[in-house]
Specification:
Number of strands: 35
CATH superfamily of one domain: Chorismate lyase-like
CATH topology of one domain: Chorismate lyase
Radius of gyration: 26 Å
Distance between the termini: 54 Å
Largest sheet: 6 strands, antiparallel
Oligomer: single chain
Length: 705
């Protein structure tokens, strides 16, 4: 197969490399996003047009631009426009909370934000608090048009310099990202165009990518793994990238079969969902499947290979370094599980605590010297598991090199907790806590404790009744006093990143009183205390009622408000998918025939304080049943269908169609469950003007109720 990656040394940047691909294959499809596709020449043209808009607004090379978009055509156009200008891409997760976005935007001095139209209110809040964030471009829902300038009060200055066509050098900064923050608060790291292009060229050659390949862009583009392996490697090699924002397993298997997908950079939970599907699809076109971001269990790898005939190869890398190693193609020889050999140009070393190379086969600290890696964090070094030393990155992993030179990971080098001068190993305490029969998961962190330095905090997930007293009694006979948890928190689940890592940063806050104040109204649900009429006494009295009684008192009956009353926290509606397309089949009860236009919408209802996913909902809306403004508000706001129906006085009645008890299966990834966990499903129609206009399927994880 011919490799068409543009050589690094002959390029001046990422956009220029895209132009070279477009010159060779102008009419070939570059990106497919749902029912919209774009050629390489169109991708260059539209990115250039957006670059002009950024430049005319006053943005300059070196300015940081936050892109808060899902995997989409809009993300790709925005990224290449920023790179053409010479500005720095700052990709951020579209589901970050307002406080998190404020912290990141402030920390790196973002000057402009590019985001979906539905996040307009959030962007306005950010701009109201951060003066440097002058501009915001808002993408329309379908991505067919370029984004528009959200704050029209700004008058663009007169354009004086053509930055977009200037040779700014390949060593200029190209991207600023934040480490996943799985072990603490995220740290900022910046890499250059040369480093990104070098990594892309190396990985694309290693995977033998070319113009006939079809790459599944399902891993998050805001993450370094998804950006490089899911988007850039495909585009820069002339392949077709299928951008996937909503990983619904049955849709993914159909996509792989229909489009003859050849490359799949995924994460473990994606493979677990596909391995547990009822039917085995035809994956004969799939040349490779990569897994990264979290450990891949042997059972998942074996189930996936048995069902689809495709082996999963593990990839190892970090935000700071990019890809470091890739597992080779499997052979008939028995080998121990590993994350593969270093990719060309990268070295992986195993060092002891004084940075001496250990003997072959011995365990030690993983060190990664790489020409594709940053040389340091942007800010000052802080106490952390990961660090840079003399240009070498230490990710905080323990490992060893086997006889074939492949890296075998052995665990994390977790920082000790300093309790009044005594060092506490979190893993030792976790091991003791997991001996409790009722505890399924345990994470131990250190939290500030005044003059004593830190205290031990344990966050536990219990599958049976377990009290603080049970934990204290268990630890009393097994741990020295200074090692015992002084703070214990029970949760229904641990917060995880989109690639499956436990996010310890959400476990560090030991002061529940720091949560923003909210008041509850039975008609409208939770509102920030500052924005609501003073009714603290009503909120306090309702808090003493049982969850079931509170839920019964909610007058509008929408699922969002019912969940707020039951769990006693604000519920956020996370939009996963909102697309207008032809119906996949007939829906006689809705007077919808196959290929008729329908709106398909998927959301997760998540607690703002706990981060728990309480429900998944998929909605099918007959496009001709409601006014266009109603459909627009569904996308722009963070409101559910039921809330808008109430506000517009459109709903007449609901017709319950089905209630089932089943396994989480294809919904497990959305709800943070194992595929075998029990869920309850209900399906109902919402009737309007004498017809069933909306069909909603809701899935509830039983163990959270």
């Amino acid at each position: 197969m011919t490799i068409d990656v543009h050589p690094v040394e002959s390029s001046t940047g990422l956009f220029q490399s895209l132009e070279a691909v477009a010159q060779r294959s102008p009419q070939e499809i570059a990106i497919v996003d749902n029912n919209v596709s774009i050629s390489f020449s169109e991708l260059v043209s539209r990115s250039g047009s957006l670059c002009v808009m950024l430049e005319q607004a006053g943005l300059q090379p070196g300015d940081r631009v936050a892109v808060i978009l899902p995997n989409s055509l809009a993300f790709a156009i925005s990224a290449f426009a920023i790179w053409k200008l010479g500005a720095i891409l700052v990709p951020l997760h579209v589901q970050l909370l307002e406080e998190e976005l404020l912290r990141y935007v402030s920390d790196c001095g973002v000057r402009a934000i590019i985001t979906p139209q539905r996040m307009k209110a959030t962007v306005e809040l950010i701009q109201g608090k951060i003066a440097t964030a002058e501009y915001a471009w808002l993408w329309p829902p379908d991505g067919s048009e370029l984004p528009y300038l959200g704050n029209e009060a700004h008058q663009p200055p007169t354009r004086t310099t053509d930055y977009a066509n200037a040779d700014l050098g390949i060593d200029r900064p190209g991207i600023t990202q934040y480490s996943t923050g799985s072990t603490g608060f995220s740290k900022r790291v910046t890499r250059s165009h040369r480093q990104l292009l070098g990594e892309v060229e190396c990985v694309a050659r290693l995977m033998d990518l070319g113009v006939h390949d079809r790459v599944l862009g399902a891993a998050p583009f805001f993450h370094s793994y998804g950006l490089v392996n899911g988007l850039l490697c495909g585009v820069m090699s002339g392949s077709r990238v299928h951008a996937v924002n909503d990983f619904f397993p049955k849709d993914i298997t159909s996509l792989i079969e229909r489009e003859r997908i050849t490359g799949f950079p995924g994460v473990p939970f994606m493979y677990e969902l596909l391995a547990d599907l009822g039917r085995a699809a035809n994956f004969q076109s799939l040349r490779y499947a990569l897994s990264a971001g979290a450990p891949l269990s042997q059972s998942t790898a074996e189930k996936f290979r048995s069902k689809y005939g495709v082996p999963i190869r593990q990839l190892y890398g970090t935000t700071e370094t990019g890809v470091a190693s890739v597992e080779p193609e499997p052979t008939d020889e028995a080998t121990e599980p590993s994350v593969g050999n270093p990719i060309p140009g990268v070295s992986i070393q195993i060092l002891d605590d004084v940075h001496r190379v250990v003997a072959d086969g011995e365990q030690g600290n993983v060190a990664i010297p790489s020409p594709f890696a940053a040389s340091a964090y942007d800010g000052p070094e802080t106490k952390a598991e990961s660090s840079f030393k003399e240009g070498v990155f230490f990710p905080g992993d323990l490992g060893r090199l086997c006889s074939s030179g492949q890296l075998v990971l052995c665990g994390r080098r977790r920082g000790f907790i300093n309790v009044a001068g005594n060092k506490v190993d979190p893993e030792e305490v976790e091991a003791v806590l997991k001996q409790l029969p009722a505890v399924s998961e345990a994470i131990v962190v250190g939290v500030p404790d005044g003059a004593a330095g830190e205290k031990v905090k344990a966050v536990l997930v219990a599958t049976a009744p377990c009290t603080h007293s049970d934990v204290y009694a268990h630890c009393k006979t097994r741990l020295a006093e200074f090692k015992r948890p002084r703070s214990i928190e029970f949760r229904k689940e641990l917060p995880r990143s989109p690639v499956g890592k436990i996010l310890r940063k959400y476990l560090l806050d030991d002061d529940q009183e720091r949560r923003p104040g909210y008041v509850f109204d039975p008609r409208s649900g939770f509102k920030p205390a500052a924005a609501a009429a003073s009714n603290d006494s009503v909120t306090a009295s309702l808090a003493t009622l049982s969850p079931v009684l509170r839920a019964l008192l909610v007058t509008d009956g929408t699922i969002t408000k019912t969940l707020e009353a039951f769990f006693w926290e604000p519920i956020d509606v996370e939009l996963l998918l909102h697309v207008e397309a032809g119906s996949d089949r007939d829906y006689p009860e809705m007077a919808v025939q196959a290929k008729d236009p329908v709106l398909r919408r998927r959301v997760v209802l998540r607690g703002r304080f706990t981060g728990s996913a309480y429900a998944f909902a998929e909605t099918l809306i007959a496009s001709d049943a409601f006014p266009p403004d109603f459909q627009r508000m569904l996308i722009e706001g963070r409101k559910g269908v039921g809330e808008l129906l109430r506000e517009w006085r459109l709903e007449t009645y609901r017709e319950l169609m089905a209630v089932e008890h089943t396994e989480a299966g294809q919904w497990a990834g959305y709800l943070g469950l194992k595929t075998t966990a029990r869920v309850t499903l209900r399906r109902y129609n919402i009737c309007h003007k004498g017809r069933a206009a909306i069909q909603i399927t809701e899935v509830f994880p039983e163990d959270r109720f």
